[in-house]
Model the fold of this input.
Amino acid sequence: MSSEGTIVGGRYRLDQPIGRGRAGIVWQAFDTRLFRTVAMKRMYLPVGLPPDRAEQARATVMQEGKDAARVDHASAITVYDVLPDGPDVWLVMEYIPSRGMASFLAEHGRLTPEQAASLGIMLGDAMAAIHAAGIVHRTLEPGTVLLADDGSVKLTDIGITGGGPHPAYRAPEVTRGAPASPAADVFSLGATLYTAVEGVAPFGDDGESSERPPQNAGVLAGALRKMLRMDPTARPTMADTVAALSAITEGREQTAFIPPTAPAMPTMPAAWPMPPNQTGQPGPVQPGQPGPLMQMPVQQVPYAPAAPQPLQQPMAAQPTQQMMPAQPAHPPQQAQPQPPTARFVPSAAQQAASAAEVRQKAAARRKLILTVAAILCAVLIGIGVSELLFV
Done:
């Protein structure tokens, strides 16, 4: 039994358990050779097998780990290594601070159809890359989806049979004994997204109940029905599924997963005016048009002030010259007059303070001149007295 501090493969130190899947415990570990944190999971091996079958099972899980290491996608967990350690086989993966989708839904509840569609785009795109590599996932379900702390989505257990898929997310043909196929992965993705928006699996926890019609899926309902078809040949491909989900989001899919507890983008109430249009009047509010917090109007450049006129009366009494624009051939319906240009008029206290400062500077200059003159006079007198004494 593995425990904290155990060294696996003479290289990886198990630090603490960070999750539990159907195939066993996932550990946060430390690579003592490359000095980096990794995630490790002991591959599932049936117990009590004869020696020849046990060795065959070990070879099978080794090959599954090697196949998973060939997948390179932003939404698929990266597999670094697969190594035997005594009777066990361990999978070494990148460490992603995250939480499982199953626990996330249990705490925060359902996702919106748009959020589920964006999640499905990322998962479906990763699944398409997995299928292109000739691999079938086999166990896609909320328990194998990680929602990372940085907003990304990571798919785990790629091609790993482990303890087998959850019955609620297993395709009906696989339940009947058929081998797993890309069409079965499409069914599993549909059941996972169904659970995300409805809160329950489409055919019950055992996968054998009658189909529950979606009640909260909204625009996602049609795509879910196609993915959950009983006939695998009638289901869309994974690439077609991604295209359908992208059409649902109308190109506004999220590049990072946003939990349902995140504040929504503010929308514009009907009472908010839009920026003025070409006639100078506020524009009408159009449905779906962004509000002031989403689109700020361009700042208007004011008219340049008029040249100052000679002072013939107090500044406060002088009128401000207006820049009269030329009259257009067809004047606007309601032309807005330009506001007068403001000018600075000093107060009496400010004028008095300025005059006092000028007087102080003049007095200081006079004092400096008198001091220099006195010094020069003293020097000249000293020179004259010394000449008289030494003649």
Remarks:
- Helices lie at 51-69, 101-108, 113-132, 172-175, 182-198, 221-227, 238-249, 348-389.
- The first helix runs from residue 51 to 69.
- The two ends are 120 Å apart (CA to CA).
